[in-house]
Amino acid sequence: xxxxxxxxxxxxxxxxxxxxxxxxxxxxxxxxxxxxxxxxxxxxxxxxxxxxxxxxxxxxxxxxxxxxxxxxxxxxxxxxxxxxxxxxxxxxxxxxxxxxxxxxxxxxxxxxxxxxxxxxxxxxxxxxxxxxxxxxxxxxxxxxxxxxxxxxxxxxxxxxxxxxxxxxxxxxxxxxxxxxxxxxxxxxxxxxxxxxxxxxxxxxxxxxxxxxxxx
Length: 215
Fold this sequence. Notes:
The protein is an alpha/beta fold. 51% of the residues lie in helices and 13% in strands. The protein has nine helices and seven strands, in the order H-H-H-H-H-H-E-E-E-E-H-E-E-H-E-H. It has helices at 27-33, 36-53, 59-63, 67-82, 86-97, 101-114, 153-164, 181-189, 197-213; strands at 118-121, 129-133, 136-141, 149-150, 170-174, 178-179, 192-195. It has a five-stranded mixed β-sheet, with helices on both faces. Strands 4-6 form a two-stranded parallel ribbon. A hairpin with a 7-residue loop joins strand 1 (118-121) and strand 2. Helix 1 (27-33) runs parallel beside helix 4 (67-82). It is elongated and about 65 Å long.
């Protein structure tokens, strides 16, 4: 979670799951969405400022302040290196939009399982799957994946389902289409992870590849 509030989804170190979240407007969240080299330039800038302003014996202490930028740069580089190409995104979205709900729900469950989640079906109109692993327990809604444009109502239903569920604390909304501006605002303000576009394709590709290799 992540087309989507940026391929990713509120800023999380994902697609591989809902590891941790941060404010989309925070500096590190912005850097995660930027080219990887921007973070390395920020780290270099911190080192240069430390060199200019601090005595020589304190330089290393000041330069260490750039270490978080190096970490973010490495994470951004990893994500960008492994991100699907635009051609893969377009081809995969066309493929999943041609599926029936039974086919797509099975693929979605397989994708979460390959990402390390325990997956259970959840009957009901608001959510379709319960996915869980250490540190993450979420309800997933994907039944409306074919709709070209999504409004606020299915997101509200999903959030309400999470609030009444005994264990789940997170909401994941899956769509091969787009969300309205109001829906995106609602997702942000209610911590709904939206999987669409590149983030959705990145989740689904391992399952699709495994199917092909198994043939």
